[in-house]
Amino acid sequence: MELDDDEETPTSLPEIERGAIQSIERASAVLALLDQDTRTLTPALVAGRLGLNRTTAHRYLQSLQGAGFLDAGYGLGPLFDQLAALISGRQQILSLAPGIMRELSDAAESTCVLSMLGRGGAVVTLVEEALRGTIILTVKVGTNLEVRAAQSRALLAFQSDPDVVARAHAGLAPAEIARESQELARVRRERVAWGDLGRIGLSSVAAPVFGAHDIQAAIALLGTSAMLPSGESRTEKVQLLRDAADRLSDLLTP
């Protein structure tokens, strides 16, 4: 197969980058040896199955242990427990949220959206479209929302890790970052976030959903500016949104 002139070949990668990629691939191959029948690893087992010498196999096991992937006995380590808890929490939200979202959408006569935080902002996870009205606003599941979207602001405002916020705001100018920081402070005070996407006639408002230790998701209403006057947080629809977010949070908190 021929490559385009501007397509980078594997051999053109810097030596250090090729080494890093190979190390990741080898580490994933080591972890893939764990299954229902193989609960712990040994240098001999890894060496035999992957064709490595025992010294190299032992070095990989030690590195994976140090990173938290494996425990002292070279079984599943604490990092997998952490990831499993996140997956369990996500599944719990996905099972509990639809009913609450449907009730909110019907009561507010507006489309209801639930999002979780991705690398750069909120990612739409669930959508319950309004069943009434001549105009139905919606958004596709999987959509990556801008940092100024209501749900992105709700999720970022309550992040315990400042690096998460810094990464999401990395593409903004310094003055814009300062404005967003002020906006996130307001969201923390009011427990409600409004979108600011510059789309005339459209409005969105979001509230945070908390789990046992941290924010888990954001739930939002979409509507026209007439249905959801931006910044007016004391309206009936906004109160319905807050109540729905609180109900979902209560179900997620043991």
The major beta sheet can be summarized as: 5 strands, antiparallel
How many strands in all? Answer: 5
Give the strand order of the largest sheet, numbering strands 1, 2, ... along the chain: 2-1-5-4-3
- Beta-strand content bin: 5-15%
Looking at this protein, list some descriptive labels.
254 residues, alpha+beta, Arc Repressor Mutant, subunit A, Beta-Lactamase, 5 strands, 46% helix, elongated, disordered N terminus
Describe the structure.
The protein is an alpha+beta fold. The chain folds into 2 domains: 10-76, Arc Repressor Mutant, subunit A, CATH 1.10.10; 85-252, Beta-Lactamase, CATH 3.30.450.40. Helix content is 46%, strand content 14%. A 5-stranded antiparallel sheet has the order 2-1-5-4-3. A hairpin with a 4-residue loop joins strand 1 (111-117) and strand 2. Helix 5 (150-157) crosses helix 7 (174-190). The longest helix has 31 residues, at 78-108. The radius of gyration is 23 Å and the shape is elongated. Residues 1-11 have low confidence and may be disordered.
Short summary:
The chain is α+β, with helices and mostly antiparallel strands. It has 8 helices and 5 strands; from the N terminus they run ααααββαααβββα.
Draw up the topology in text.
Elements: H1 15-31, H2 43-50, H3 54-66, H4 78-108, E1 111-117, E2 122-128, H5 150-157, H6 162-168, H7 174-190, E3 193-194, E4 202-210, E5 215-224, H8 236-252
Antiparallel strand pairs: 1-2, 1-5, 3-4, 4-5
